[in-house]
Each structure stands twice: as structure tokens, then as C-alpha cells.
Amino acid sequence: MNEQVREAVKSAMGERKISQGELARRLEVDRPSITRLLSGTSGKVPKLWQEVLDALDLELVVQPKKRLSDQSLEWNNRNRTQ
């Protein structure tokens, strides 16, 4: 599961042409912190959380955020039918 999250982040960084250094700058952390997160040496989901997810047959998933316009359309469509 952690590997899926790391790969999704790396992919998003590549699509947006954001380097580890640039991401670190935006987050106001040092570059080695980003390197550790992306390599898996830090930033793992705590063991207990993983056990909870496993017990409930759930998984942590990374997906792009909806754009504001998408959210507005969805909200408008819901309110129209009520």
C-alpha cells in the first residue's frame, strides 16, 4: 500500500514536472526529507492503521482532487434533483 502511494506521488510529480527539490521548497522542508518519503525510508502508514485497514478490508488510495468547477457542477446537479 505504501508503495502505491509513493508511485502515485512520483507519477504526479513527473506529470507536473516538479522535482524533489521544488516539492521540498513548496513544502518548506529539506530535500532529503522528500527523498526519504519517496524511497520508503520514512513516511510509512503506522502499523496499527494498516492493521485497521486490513481488518476492515480497506485500502488507502491516492487520487487527484476534484477541480472546483467539477465540485460546483456536482453540487448543482444534486440540488437540482432535490
Description:
It holds the Pfam family HTH_3. This is Helix-turn-helix domain-containing protein. InterPro entries: Cro/C1-type_HTH, Lambda_DNA-bd_dom_sf. Helix content is 65%, strand content 0%. The protein is built from five helices and no strands. The chain starts with a helix and ends with a helix. The mean pLDDT is 83.
Our Rg estimate from Cα atoms comes to 17 Å
Query: What is the CATH top level name?
Result: Mainly Alpha
The 3D shape can be described as flat
β content, as a range?
Answer: under 5%
Mind describing the biggest β-sheet? none
**Helix-strand makeup class:** mainly alpha
Mean pLDDT: 83
| Unreliable residue runs | none
Count the beta strands. 0
**DSSP summary: helix tally:** 5
Alpha-carbon distance between the two ends: 39 Å
In the CATH classification, which architecture applies? Orthogonal Bundle
Helix content: 55-70%
Element order: H for helix, E for strand: HHHHH
**What fold name stands as the CATH topology?**
434 Repressor (Amino-terminal Domain)
Count of all domains: 1
Write the layout of secondary structure elements.
Elements: H1 2-15, H2 20-27, H3 31-39, H4 47-55, H5 68-80
InterPro entries: Cro/C1-type_HTH, Lambda_DNA-bd_dom_sf
Pfam families: HTH_3
Protein name: Helix-turn-helix domain-containing protein
In short:
The protein is 65% helix and 0% strand.
Question: Which keywords apply here?
Answer:
5 helices; single chain; 434 Repressor (Amino-terminal Domain)
